[in-house]
Amino acid sequence: EVQLVESGGGLVQPGGSLRLSCVASGFGFLNHAMAWVRQAPGKGLEWVSTINWNGGMTYSAESIKGRFTISRDNAQNTVYLQMNSLKPEDTAVYYCNDAPMASFPWGQGTQVTVSS
Q: Are 59 and 48 in contact (CB under 8 A)?
C-alpha cells in the first residue's frame, strides 16, 4: 500500500522558517521524481517544487524561489521542503506526491499558517 505522510507544519510568524517532511512507502521511491504542492484556503492545488530521483535537479515556482529548498534522502524514503522567509501568502496545506503525474493517493498534508 502506497503511503505519503507529511509533517512539520505549524504556526509561524512572517519571516520565520519551517522544515516539512514527507515519508513515502509502498513504492520504489528511487524511481520517482517527487514534488511538493500546496492548497491555500478556498483555492486549487498550486505546484511548489520538484526534485528528480537523485536530487541532482530541482525546479521551483517563481513565488518561492530563493526562499524554499527541496531535498530528498533516498535512504530514508523522505523528501523535505525547507521554507525560509515565510510570508502570509504561504499559508496553505502542503502535500507531496510523485512528479509529474501525482500518481499516488494523497496524504493528509501538513498545515502551514504564517501569521503574526
A: no
* pLDDT tens digits along 7-35: 999 999 999 999 999 999 999 999 999 99
pLDDT 10s digits, 33-85: 999 999 999 999 999 999 999 999 999 999 999 999 999 999 999 999 999 99
What would the grid cell of residue 57 be? 535537479
Of 69, 105, 100, 78, whose CA–CA distance to 22 is shortest? 78
Backbone angles phi, psi at 64, to 5 degrees: -120, 0
User: β-pairing, 110-114 with 10-12?
Assistant: parallel
